[in-house]
Design a protein that fits this description.
This protein is elongated. Helix content is about 30%, strand content about 30%. Strand 2 and strand 3 form a beta hairpin. By secondary structure, the protein is of the alpha+beta class. Helix 6 crosses helix 11, helix 10 packs across helix 11 and helix 12 runs antiparallel to helix 13.
């Protein structure tokens, strides 16, 4: 059963403005404050602080009317883009509590805390810790936990502060709340109280068919979502994964050796869980959370699924120079992705160094490939595999270095160059007619005299493909390929595009180098 934590930041625009402008006086004696936005050519209040609200002002009110009622009202322009950026930053910060965090509207978050609350000693301690941290940073928030996003949303906004609905008890938890707690459309939310329906519990006793007919299917859907009878998809900022663990410190750490030790300890925690369930992963991420809420993720990717914490730590440590500890790191979280079953392997008695799980070529190469991938980038380390196509540009694909062998095999009767150019380069060649190889050619301003040549190998366009002959160097015309060697031992793969007597001027190109 899922457990969802809803966080609501009341008056989020005012909160974020104050954090962006720390010099502004926010004391109780300060002048009332509001943010303005332009709607249809009219200036209106987008948000008001507590002092302005106590004087009767509210969002949506015309700015001119508000100034008439409260002459000393201080106003600034509303910046919704900055509010959104701040909410996304808060969403990323909450990864310390759960790897699955979703943005809820313009002022809230949803956290899927299923299986993670034990890291804080329970749901109550997690809830208190989250709200207390936000309060210390000047972000007032309300939060609640329930089985469903709908019930948690309702309790966070209309229930008791830090409310927790016991598993399976969301119906009883929300029945006394106002109907606005169901996230209804404006029309239905305004009409229900006029008919005497003020509480959610009153809707439970009414026939569902009549509710849907009178107020639309949206009302019954929201009821079902709150009660867990209908699914609600949440759009998480990062893929949801149950493979999550955390390491908290009594005192913040900042020394490089401490960061490296903490990363190793956190990775050991997740690897122990993977080993206990017979699984491994290809991607690991350790996130260092500073005291000020900044988070620094460090990733390690594996060529093959694994769960060796020492090996992962060696991949993480060279990247720690990108982590700025500031005034200290208080929490390290780690999660694994691309988790797959990983069976234990029997050590070989004849393995070097007293035995080992992997003595195959792939297992020997895996540590080297992991280091290269993590230093150079995943896109820069690849293996060339053959692909079913006789057109050279399409006959090679890039695969991960340790992927299973491709179904297609290299054709030994038609050797291809070690280095195939991304685009053929034009050359000037002298050759006998009609099908003899060139006697000499000039490439990049340098003349080459041909000593040996093999060919031609004729390659035409793939007639079942559309648009293959749109470029000058495309296979739209026949190509006659030659493998040639010049007088100093250089070996080239060149071709003539077009036929003498058919095309006006056949052209010569170089497409690759054999060595």
């Amino acid at each position: 059963m899922a457990r969802i934590l809803s966080v609501w930041c009341p008056n989020w625009p005012i909160t974020t403005w104050r954090r962006r402008n720390p010099g502004y006086d926010t004391s109780a004696e300060a002048a009332p404050f509001a943010l303005l936005a332009t709607e249809g050519g009219t200036r209106r209040l987008a948000a008001v602080d507590e002092t302005a609200r106590a004087l009767g002002l509210g969002a949506g009110q015309k700015a001119a009317d508000a100034m008439a009622l409260v002459p000393n009202l201080v106003t600034f322009d509303h910046d919704p883009v900055a509010d959104r950026i701040a909410l996304e930053a808060l969403c990323d910060w909450c990864v310390r509590f759960s790897p699955a965090v979703a943005i809820d509207g313009a002022d809230g978050l949803f956290l899927d805390i299923t299986g993670t609350d034990h890291l804080w000693g329970g749901e109550r301690d997690m809830l208190v810790d989250l709200v207390a941290r936000l309060a210390r940073w000047g972000v007032p928030a309300r939060a609640a936990i329930a089985d469903t996003a709908g019930a948690a949303w309702a309790l966070a906004r209309f229930g008791d502060d830090l409310a927790i609905a016991a598993p399976g008890e969301q119906r009883a938890a929300i029945e006394a709340l106002p109907v606005a707690a169901l996230r209804l459309e404006d029309a239905a939310e305004a009409q229900l109280p006029r008919l005497g329906l003020h509480r959610v519990g009153q809707l439970f006793a009414l026939p569902r068919a009549q509710l849907a007919k009178r107020f639309g299917l949206g009302l019954t859907l929201r009821l079902d979502q709150a009660l867990g009878m209908a699914a609600e998809a949440l759009s998480f900022r990062r893929p949801a994964t149950p493979w999550f663990d955390r390491l908290a410190f009594f005192e913040p750490i900042s020394a490089p050796e401490d960061l490296a030790r903490a990363a190793g300890d956190a990775l050991a925690l997740i690897c122990q869980r993977l080993e206990a369930e017979g699984r491994g992963a290809k991607r690991f991420e350790a996130v260092f959370h500073r005291l000020d809420g900044q988070a620094y993720p460090v990733r390690a990717n594996l060529a093959r699924i694994g769960r060796d914490a020492k090996r992962l730590t060696k991949l993480i440590i060279p990247k720690l120079d990108k982590v700025d500890p500031g005034f200290g790191v208080e929490v390290v979280t780690v999660h694994a992705a691309a988790v797959e079953p990983l069976a234990a392997a029997q050590d070989r008695l004849d393995a070097p160094n007293g035995g080992g799980v992997g003595t195959s070529l792939d297992e020997t190469l895996a540590p080297l490939i992991d280091r290269l991938v993590n230093r150079l980038g995943e896109a820069r380390v690849w293996r060339a595999d053959p692909y079913e196509s006789h057109v050279p540009e399409r006959s090679v694909v890039r695969n991960a270095p340790l992927d299973p062998p491709a179904a297609a095999k290299w054709d030994l009767d038609r050797p291809r160059p070690v280095r195939l150019f991304k685009r053929p380069e034009a050359i000037t060649a002298i050759a006998k007619l009609p099908d003899d190889p060139p006697m000499s050619f000039t490439w990049r301003g340098r003349a080459h005299r041909v000593r040996r040549a093999e060919g031609p190998e004729r390659i035409g366009q793939e007639w079942w493909r559309a648009g293959v002959g749109e470029t000058d160097t495309g296979p739209g015309k026949l190509r006659d390929y030659y493998r040639v060697e010049d007088d100093v031992g250089g070996r080239f793969w060149i071709f003539r595009q077009g036929l003498f007597g058919v095309d006006e001027a056949p052209k010569w190109w170089i497409h690759g180098l054999f060595g």
